[in-house]
Design a protein that fits this description.
mainly alpha; 19 helices; about 60% helix; about 0% strand; globular
């Protein structure tokens, strides 16, 4: 990476690599203060977060779906033939004949190919509109709000860089903010928090819902068969983020249900806490809502997590562990798999799949390994280095969230003159071995979709 902003301090190579991995895996785990990075480095991190976001990476899946046409004729040729009328029959073929079946098959393939192309345009448009509109609104707010503009001037951060960096980070659910304090410094700017909350949901947990709603609107407005085909044949489109209308409704209900439960518990336990000092009732409501929305996958925070209760931290750990599209689906909504599908799944299992552990088992192994690498600090500095803080850090890295309790010199049992507080994550005080293990956890979490069904060969009975 390029040179840091300050010449007096330069991050170590392991910290630079750790930050790059954290940005690429949209994890926002930090080992150095964000204000150390120059404007050029922030732009580089913005690019890493942009290409590492779920919506951007899913576009490659659409490209693969487009190239999945393995027919003897090119899909483009089929499409042009059907559209230009080169497939012509002078007499209507008898029903059920091979000629009629071939024409219907070609027409269906052409429609599917055009629907895949339309879906690519919709996802790309969705991606661009959110970033352009979001960046513009954040830029306008920061420019017009005196308190926010003063913060930018004091910290020497360009408003344009801050706006685009923050929107990209929020939409990709990374959680990096160009300020050392993350969003704590903006906890009184309720307008900015309200602008970012929808971006968090649009880029992750509610993406399938918003995508289907967008396609539904386009179908009603344009009356094009391609959009209707996408809605009716979502499983055949080869795009994992497409869901049925019922599943989207259940997903939305689950997301807002989790937010409501967390919001009620957070308000009941932290309303009058030190973390909320100086805020009015309206600012507290917006700030607590912002915090619980971020607990699933974004990791932006307006409070110091080390100051909130252990019960809330445990709740956050559970929320961070859950995959983004977790939803409550009643049993009657599940369709039973056919015997043929079940047999094909059983035949697909190999020895590796049978011996793999569950996700919880791997997380437990990672926590144990980190407790081993940091065993001396666990013994000498128990208030900072404890199993709960380590568990929060590991699960946060696995969920690609970025929540961290940080590190405080005031909590040290043995006072040392050389200790200085800094706005970095808890992992910033770990050994290089511990940081390397957390890098593996971040990659493991970013690729969690390939391991969610692991461990089923183990029977706990």
């Amino acid at each position: 990476m390029s040179k840091p902003r300050t010449g007096s301090f330069g991050p170590k190579n392991i910290d630079v690599f750790f930050t790059s991995v954290s940005a690429a895996t949209v994890s926002s785990m930090s080992t150095v203060e964000m204000e150390v990075f120059s404007n050029t480095q922030l732009i580089i991190m913005t690019v890493l977060m942009l290409v590492g976001g779920e919506v951007f990476t899913s576009m490659f899946g659409l490209q693969l779906a487009r190239s999945s046409f393995t027919n003897h004729e090119s899909p483009d040729t089929i499409a042009h033939e059907v559209e230009l009328g080169t497939i012509i029959t002078y007499e209507k073929p008898p029903s059920g004949t091979d000629l009629e079946n071939n024409i219907n098959s070609s027409s269906t393939k052409s429609l599917k190919y055009r629907a895949t192309r339309y879906l690519r345009y919709v996802v790309l448009g969705y991606f661009l509109v959110v970033h352009v509109v979001g960046s513009s609104l954040v830029y306008m707010y920061v420019s017009l709000a005196p308190s926010a503009r003063k913060i930018m001037k004091t910290k020497g951060i360009e408003i344009q860089t801050f706006s685009f960096f923050t929107v990209v980070s929020t939409f990709s659910n990374c959680g990096f903010i160009p300020t050392n304090e993350n969003m704590i410094v903006f906890k009184e700017n309720s307008g900015l928090l309200l602008l970012l909350i929808p971006l968090i949901l649009l880029g992750n947990t509610l993406y399938p819902v918003c995508l289907r709603a967008t396609i539904w609107v386009l179908d009603k407005v344009t009356k094009k068969a391609e959009f209707n085909y996408i809605l009716s044949n979502y499983q055949e489109m080869g795009y994992v983020h497409l869901r049925s209308g019922v599943r989207c409704a259940l997903l939305a209900a689950t997301v807002f249900g989790f937010i409501s439960v967390q919001f009620v518990l957070f308000c009941s336990m932290e309303w009058n806490s030190d973390a909320m000092d100086g805020l009015g009732s309206y600012q507290k409501i917006v700030g607590l809502l912002f915090e619980v929305v971020n607990s699933r996958h974004s990791g932006e925070s307006i409070v110091d997590l080390s100051t909130i209760s252990s019960a809330i931290l445990l709740l956050f750990i559970v929320m961070m562990y859950l995959p983004p599209y977790t939803s409550f689906v009643p049993t009657k909504c599940w369709k039973k798999k056919s015997e043929k599908e079940c047999k094909s799944e059983e035949q697909g299992k190999n020895i590796l799949e049978c011996v793999m552990f569950s996700t919880l088992s791997y997380l437990a192994i990672f926590i144990i390994l980190i407790c081993i690498t940091e065993r001396h600090k666990l013994r000498e500095d128990p208030l900072n280095f404890n199993v709960l803080n380590i568990t929060l850090e590991v699960v946060s890295a696995y969920g690609n969230v970025g929540f961290s309790t940080g590190y405080s010199c005031k909590r040290r049992v043995k006072g040392e003159t050389g200790c200085t507080d800094s706005w970095t994550g808890f992992v910033g005080r770990w050994s290089n071995s511990g940081k390397f293990i957390l890098i593996i956890v971040m990659f493991f979490g970013r690729l969690k979709s390939f391991s969610l069904k692991s461990g089923k060969a183990w029977k706990l009975s």
